[in-house]
What we know:
Distance between the termini: 62 Å
Strand content: 25-35%
Shape: elongated
Number of helices: 2
Strand order of the largest sheet: 1-2-6-5
Number of strands: 8
Helix content: 25-40%
Order of helices and strands: HHEEEEEEEE
Amino acid sequence: MxxxxxxxxxxxxxxxxxxxxxxxxxxxxYNAVKTFPGLEVKNSxxxxxxFDVRKDAQEALxxxxxxxxxxxxxxxxxxxxAGQPVQxxxxxxxxxxxxxxxxxxxxxxxxxxxxxxxxVEVADGNWNIRMTAVAEDGTGFQQRLFLHVK
Length: 150
């Protein structure tokens, strides 16, 4: 005996299908907002007006920065345009995951004559190093480095 599809069956099908879609969207939106670390700057218009000036000053320093993690030690090397090690007047470094803030940690480094080193245990995967420094002449320097730990 064949069952007849009634309006009630069609309504239940539509409600069920859209219920699944809406539930998935709500869960995905909630997780996206929960793991979003926040804004990079408070006012993007003001930041864009100052960007070129800061960029030109930073590039004039001629610094290159490299990072590596080996045997539980993070090594941050800052070199000038002549390839010589640089010691900024001030430096702040935050190590964290690219997509969340819960693993962020501010690091304190010691200068070993060639690079800045600090012991830090990190899990495998991708990490961001957000470095802010000030040169001896007061020029600001910012760099985000990507670190992949195996």
